[in-house]
TrEMBL record:
Keyword NAD belongs to the record: no
Region (Disordered): 47-74
Keyword annotations: Membrane, Signal, Transmembrane, Transmembrane helix
Pfam families on file: Beta-lactamase
Signal peptide location: 1-22
Transmembrane portions of the chain: 582-609, 630-647, 659-685, 705-726
Source organism: Phenylobacterium zucineum (strain HLK1)
Record's protein name: Beta-lactamase class C
Composition skew (Low complexity), residue ranges: 60-74
Keyword Cytoplasm assigned: no
Length: 731
């Protein structure tokens, strides 16, 4: 299991979220699959995944999977054609088109071929990524072609995943229901995309101007450009059902700051989606949960989908999840110490429009059929033609293949040059993805119930499209001599715009929200750090700043200014990665922390190592020395407390639920007092340097050491203040 602050908290970039904003991937784990996962994953040929070369995995033991729907049973009745290993990885029986793709866009994927591919791909990924359970549904050309469960919804007692009964948390896929409700109000003429969202909100939840003239509109909420900072710690998820608040109260109490003008740049915002959900609920004078059931879930027959959560009924809150659904809610798991550990239930009802939905693979198949049918399926219509066009029309123009926002839906660039629409979703333990590709008449949904499921869910739709509709591609793509010559234009450290802009959460955001860009001698661009690396090659002239993954189809687009890259959009357009200011570099913070630690240790050692002559000092010098000794102890205590807190971040849930925690607050308080004492020692410097051989005074060497220590502490204090660590009250 990967651990450490940067790796463990990288989940923040994808939670609830949504888009797997971290466009980086870790090396596959070399440890054997867990026994439980091995039991859940029958022997199967490993098909062509084209994610990246995998380390050999121990052979999995057979076990029964969950029952299938009628479509799945029909598929199972046909003999499954095995995936053929090797360089070509050709699936037998599929026609090869002139383009080199196995199927043309109008052709339906043969069900047996599809099931054979999906079985191998999913089971292989579940073993590799330590995923306890998963569910898949795939629709095409107006019907369900595959619906299947894998592994377990519960390990004690063991309960296999049932695609028609098991409810998984679908995270930010919930947002797509919110945007449909909002577009319905636009079609009715009761909301307007370009009018201030404040027109539709209760007075106490209205967005404050904070010096920005351009108002936040429904349109800017849909493309995630309202200009809010992003805060999540300690309030986006709750472990205790008693802490759930009504939506309007949550939006009042957890109001983020506006840090940029509305409509300037996309930076993913759960809070913004919450505002949109409250606006439509306010217009209809009913709770959001009731509204989504009446307008969307009931008409589509999605009886096993709900935004409600399994908790006791409480006055002032929407009704809880119906009892007949609660027994089928999948448990969340994380892989720790060679075994699966149960995650506590993650309550998100306080901001339900952004991520509280639970659903089954079967219900999500119905939903995808409606999306592919421009809002209509099985005689029901949940939105009209204007919304249908909007959900397939990016609000912001993007370069070919670059993901964007289509009125709340993510626009995906898929293999073969196809375009998809949908959303990713994540909580701490659940990871899901839904992509519909109208050109192919195809909808793909997958959901998992384990912390590391994002590697599985995030690439599944791409793998299906590549397998059947994309021409073979040789990986890795070659580097570029032109990029090598222009390396200085791209290399540097970049920081995400999707973070808190201050306080302790801002400190953590800067710790985990940056990426290094460098160019290799082979002419490839590498982003990330440690084992979280992605490699890119130019797509078109280097001066345009467009890149494609060396081993996939993700794109990267830099904004160029005077021939130099100043920012780039991450793979899901969920944030801008901006060139970091000088004080944002972790190397600077680390260097100053190292110097501060050395100075503190030397200061305390000096108390015991000085000879008798060194103890000659004036009264001011004695007091200055005492102050600096106290500082040294406080700095070392702060470092120790931060290290202890960092060790706890291996459990992301603990960080969220217990935020900020006694360790981090105490570390911040120690650092704050130590930084404040720097003002005292700096003020004492002139007096410290007074005196000579005729009076009691320090040696010149000790005076110099004292001065250097003051300067080191002062520099470190300034940088820590800019990073947000010197504000223990902000937690």
């Amino acid at each position: 299991m990967r651990c450490g602050l940067k790796t463990a908290l990288a989940g923040l970039a994808m939670l609830i979220l949504g888009p797997a904003a971290a466009a980086q991937e870790a090396e596959p784990s070399s440890s054997p699959p867990p026994a439980i996962a091995a039991a859940a994953l029958p022997d199967a040929p490993v098909p062509y995944t084209q994610i990246r070369p995998k380390r050999p995995q121990p052979k999995a033991r057979p076990q029964a999977t969950a029952p299938q729907s009628v479509a799945g049973q029909a598929a199972a009745a046909q003999p499954a054609a095995p995936a053929v290993a090797g360089a070509a990885d050709v699936v037998p029986g599929l026609p090869v088109q002139a383009t080199g793709a196995r199927l043309s866009p109008g052709e339906t994927i043969p069900t047996a071929e599809l099931e054979a591919f999906v079985d191998g791909w999913v089971r292989d990924a579940m073993a590799r990524e330590h995923v306890a359970g998963a569910a898949v549904s795939i629709v095409q050309n107006g019907r369900v072609v595959l619906k299947k469960g894998y592994g377990f919804a519960d390990l004690n007692p063991r309960k296999a995943v049932d695609p028609d009964r098991t409810l998984f948390r679908i995270g930010s896929i919930s947002k797509t229901f919110t945007w449909i409700l909002a577009m319905n109000e636009v079609e009715r003429g009761r909301m307007a995309l370009d009018q201030p969202i404040n027109r539709y909100l209760p007075e106490k939840t209205r967005v404050r101007g904070e010096g920005y003239r351009r108002p936040v509109t429904l349109k800017t909420l849909m493309d995630h450009s309202p200009g809010f900072e992003d805060r999540a710690m300690g309030q986006l998820f709750e472990r205790d059902a008693d802490r759930i608040r009504p939506l309007d109260l949550y939006l009042r109490q957890e109001r983020p700051r506006r840090v940029r003008a509305s409509g300037v740049a996309s930076s993913y915002s759960n809070y913004g989606t919450g505002l949109a959900g409250l606006a439509v609920a306010n217009l209809n004078r009913k709770p959001f949960e009731d509204l989504v059931e009446d307008e969307l879930l009931t008409p589509l027959g999605m009886s096993r989908t709900t935004f409600r959560e399994p908790r006791p009924e409480r006055r002032g809150l929407p009704a809880p999840m119906p009892a007949d659904l609660q027994d089928d809610v999948a448990r969340g798991y994380w892989w720790r110490g060679g075994a699966f550990k149960v995650r506590p239930y993650e309550y998100i009802g306080q901001i339900a429009p952004a991520g509280s939905a639970s659903s089954t693979a079967g219900d999500m198949a119905r939903y995808m059929l409606a999306l592919l049918g421009d809002g209509s399926w099985n005689g029901a219509t949940i939105y009209g033609p204007r919304a249908a066009r909007a959900f397939r029309q990016p609000i912001q123009a993007t370069a070919p293949g670059i993901n964007g926002w289509a009125h709340g839906f993510i626009v995906y660039g898929l293999p073969g040059g196809y375009r998809g629409y949908g959303h990713d979703g994540a909580t701490i333990a659940f990871h899901s993805s839904m992509v519909v590709a109208p050109q192919l008449g195809l909808g793909v949904f997958i959901t998992t119930n384990s912390d590391d499921g994002h590697e599985l869910s995030g690439r599944f739709a791409e793998a299906v499209v590549r397998q059947f509709y994309a021409a073979p591609v040789t990986f890795p793509r070659p580097g570029s001599a032109e990029l090598l010559a222009a390396r200085g234009a791209f290399e540097g450290y970049y920081v995400t715009s999707r973070r808190a802009h201050g306080g302790l959460e801002g400190f953590v955001g800067l710790m985990i929200g940056g990426t290094q860009a460098r160019v290799t001698p082979e002419g490839r661009l590498v982003t990330g750090s440690g084992d979280e690396l992605r490699t890119w090659v130019p797509e078109g002239p280097v001066r345009e700043g467009r890149f494609i993954a060396a081993d996939g189809d993700e794109r990267l687009a830099f904004r160029m200014k005077n021939g130099r890259a100043v920012s780039f959009r991450d793979a899901f357009n969920a944030a801008q990665m901006q060139r970091a200011a000088w004080w944002m570099h972790p190397l600077l913070l680390g260097a100053l922390a190292g110097l501060t630690g050395l100075a503190a240790i030397a200061t305390l050692l000096g108390v015991f190592l000085r000879n008798r002559r060194d103890f000659r000092e004036s009264q001011i010098q004695a007091r200055a020395a005492l102050t600096q000794n106290i500082q040294a102890g406080l700095w070392l205590a702060a470092f120790a407390l931060l290290a202890a807190w960092g060790m706890q971040t291996a459990d992301l849930a603990k960080v969220f639920f217990d935020w900020p925690g006694a360790l981090l607050i105490t570390a911040s308080a120690c650092a704050l007092v130590a930084a404040a004492l720097t003002l005292v020692t700096a003020a004492a410097l002139p007096a410290v340097w007074q005196g000579g051989r005729r009076v009691e005074s320090w040696t010149g060497t000790r005076k110099a050491f004292f001065t250097v220590t003051v300067l080191v502490y002062a520099a470190f204090s300034v940088v820590l203040g800019l990073w947000g660590l010197l504000s223990p009250w902000s937690g």
